[in-house]
Amino acid sequence: MTGLARRAVLILLLASAAIGTGAATRQPNDDWHAFDGSWNAVGDRQLLAVAAGGSAATMRLSGALVLSGVNGLRRGFRAQAIGFDDGRGTGVGRALWTDDRGDQIFSEIAGQQSRSGRRIEGTITGGTGRYAGLTGSYSFEWRYVLPSDETTLQMQSVTLTGRYRLPANE
Q1: Which domains, and CATH codes, for the chain?
Q2: Planar angle of CA 141, 32, 162, nearest 5 degrees
Q3: Alpha carbon 14 to chain centroid distance?
Q4: pLDDT by residue (tens digit) across 111-151?
Q5: 109 close to 83: Cβ distance less than 8 angstroms
């Protein structure tokens, strides 16, 4: 083998070794993407009387979440949420969005009573599959769609907006 051929083989071996060992490191992604959406859900709640004459409640909701303006996310999700209202108008909970491939987005939610429903702020805390490492935030207002009894909820989001940042490719 000539000197030039040996150098070419050595360069190819070094390059393939660097690629095979994962020499590329994960770089942070500072690109935020905005989105809008709509979430319609039904569910149930359980009430517990509190000293002030009101009620604390636990809630479980499930329904369809549709996003627009997304890049790198699916547009449709099955969205679930569980929450707790302390009886003073403050609530906390968790939400789970599952796309048609089974990949999930996790978020923490907090809400305050508003004139027409409840104002919700969400923080995206990660996900599974293609959404692992996803971060972001969103907000919307829940409106009660139909009159319901004390245990049944039918809700619709109003002005759901948010932003997200995809994890950097490895």
Answers
A1: 30-165 (2.40.350)
A2: 5
A3: 41
A4: 987 777 789 999 999 999 999 999 999 999 988 776 567 78
A5: yes
